[in-house]
Design brief:
Elements: E1 2-10, H1 14-26, E2 33-37, H2 44-51, E3 56-59, H3 65-80, E4 84-90, E5 94-95, H4 102-110, E6 114-123, E7 138-140, E8 146-148, E9 151-152, E10 155-156, E11 166-169, E12 176-180, H5 181-186, H6 199-209, E13 213-224, H7 235-252, H8 259-279, H9 283-298, H10 300-313, H11 325-331
Helix pairs in contact: 7-8, 7-9, 7-10, 8-9
Protein name: Glycosyltransferase family 2 protein
Pfam family, one: Glycos_transf_2
Organism: Spirosoma liriopis
Length: 343
């Protein structure tokens, strides 16, 4: 069994593989590197075979998104390659740095209660600035909205070493997720209904309900292009983010009381955010938010079953940020993580 398997999920990302795979191989620290290809049509498979013979290639039969693709790839590694104690799942548009693995592995090895971890995520284009997808570790507020150390909504902090510590967080980013292999499989992996976006937050929530912890490691840094598969302005990305946020909240919210009140308030707040899209002429994003809510209601039978099963498995309640991040940011003017109350 390998100590760590580095697993990159690829879908039509040949340009990113050409740019970033050499660095991953150079700084792999002796750990095997896998590329799991989700039935790409851009020649990615042949490109990897011809140029990177050291890479272990997994050919998936179809594109199951981030959630389905990684579930299939990691199960394949477990059953065909003897498995690994830990997985790290860097996006294909991640640039790793020398020594990026050792500090995270050391943190995981120091505490068996840590199930998942992430390095600092900085922007590839603005290298002194935290990147949107995870920054220095994430949290969830009482309405299911997510934010990070280093990034709250559209405010991105400059990295000045303020998050160089190792810190327990609520969720670790899927842009570069380290996770214990046995716990990943024990928890059921990613929820494939999510397809992409927020499936890692859902997984981190479930791992904590099983009495494990999630951390961010400030001694490891990677750089993220962001929007490699879906640009930030893509309406489908808007749809997935709004829909999956509701999925996650309904599945995992710890008590029946007030749940539907929170869903109703989310409907109002999401409606307000759609007006902001409307103001700048992004009609398709407004339609995406409407579709996201209808999709949530359409999935309620499935979500109810998931909610019931999770409550039966739960070993401990999980604490959320007890305030509304929307209120703190837009009304109270708290723009950075360190300005927020009770964190």
């Amino acid at each position: 069994m390998d100590t760590l398997a580095i697993v990159i999920l690829n879908y039509n990302g040949q340009s990113f593989l050409a740019k970033f795979l050499p660095t991953v191989l150079a700084y792999a620290e002796g750990h095997p590197v896998y590329v799991a290809d989700s039935a790409s049509t851009d020649g990615s498979v042949a490109f990897v075979q011809d140029n990177f013979p050291a890479v272990r290639l997994i050919k998936l039969a179809h594109n199951g998104g981030y959630a389905g693709g990684y579930n299939m790839a990691l199960e394949y590694i477990r059953t065909h390659h003897g498995g690994a104690r830990y997985y790290v799942l860097p996006n294909s548009d991640i640039e790793v740095t020398p020594g990026w693995i050792a500090p995270v592995l050391s943190l995981l090895e120091s505490n068996p209660k840590i199930a998942a971890c992430q390095p600092k995520i900085l922007s590839y284009s603005q290298r002194d600035t935290f990147e949107h997808a995870g920054a220095a570790g994430g949290f969830v507020d009482k309405l299911g909205y997510v934010f990070c150390r280093g990034r709250v909504f559209a405010t991105f902090e400059t990295d000045q070493g303020q998050y160089n510590d190792n810190q327990q967080v609520f969720w670790a980013t899927g842009a570069c997720l380290f996770v214990r292999a046995d716990l990943f499989h024990q928890a059921g992996g990613f929820d494939t209904t999510f397809f992409a976006h927020m499936e890692e937050i859902d997984l981190c929530w479930r791992l904590q309900r099983l009495e494990y912890e999630v951390w961010a490691c400030g001694q490891s840094t990677v750089y993220h292009v962001g929007g490699g598969t879906l640009p930030k302005s893509n309406p489908h990305k808007t749809y997935l983010n709004y829909r999956n946020s509701l999925f996650m909240l309904y599945k995992n919210w710890p008590a029946d009381g007030w749940l539907w009140g929170k869903i109703l308030l989310r409907l109002v707040l999401d409606g307000v955010s759609s007006l902001l899209f409307l103001k700048v002429g992004q009609w398709r994003d407004v339609q995406a938010i409407i579709r996201a809510h209808f999709a949530f209601y359409g999935h309620l039978p499935y979500l109810r079953r998931q909610r019931k099963a999770l409550r039966q498995q739960q070993k401990q309640a999980v604490a959320l940020y007890p305030y509304s991040i929307v209120w703190q940011y837009f009304v109270k003017g708290k723009k950075t993580f360190r300005e927020l109350r009770d964190l």
